[in-house]
Design a protein that fits this description.
Length: 181
């Protein structure tokens, strides 16, 4: 396979997987990542496009949950005025636990442009989860916080191109029911 090449259907498949695998982000009214505050995503993107993401709680949509096969937790962040959707998949994390040096994958979508970038595997990025706490008065909801870095460029999907991700920090929300729920 040619380096940087991804089959044409890969972008559509990732978009479908993202849309059916995570709880829908609410589109009505003002958004906030976490009730009571504290949600955030901070990351610098360079390469094929530049972005200085410094999203606080207000105006940021965040949500997440375990992958259907249960081998990873996905956290999703978006902000309407920036036109970006970022999905972080953290492998090896269990409900309520913290851990260092977890393998992770990262997908970045430039909404409205149909441009996808992805690590397409959990061997490019490393994440440390410093907080994974139940949110009071919200059953099966967890506040997940940490930081990470990507050791290689994140490749464009179904075309040539790449972006670089500087070390990043996040605090988001995950709906994480017990396995027998």
């Amino acid at each position: 396979m040619t380096p940087g090449y991804r089959p044409a259907g890969t972008a559509a498949a990732i978009g479908i997987l993202i849309s059916i695998s995570l709880p829908a982000l609410a589109d009505d009214g003002p958004s906030e990542c976490l009730p009571g505050g504290g949600g955030r995503l901070e990351v610098q993107i360079s390469g094929e496009f530049e972005a200085a993401v410094d999203w606080g709680n207000d105006g940021t949509r965040c949500d997440g949950g375990p992958r259907p096969d249960g081998d990873a937790l996905r956290l999703m962040f978006s902000r309407d005025d920036d036109g970006l959707l970022m999905v972080l998949g953290i492998t090896g994390l269990v409900r309520g636990a913290t851990r260092e040096s977890l393998p992770a994958n990262l997908t970045v979508v430039r909404q409205g442009l149909g441009l996808f970038y992805g690590s397409l595997g959990a061997d490019t990025c490393i994440v440390t989860v410093e907080e994974n706490l139940a949110v009071e008065d919200q059953p099966d909801t967890y506040r997940v916080s940490g930081h990470g870095r990507c050791e290689a460029p994140i490749e464009a999907i179904a075309r040539d191109g790449e972006i670089l991700i500087a070390p990043f920090a996040f605090t988001g929300r995950a709906w994480w029911p017990e396995e027998d729920d």
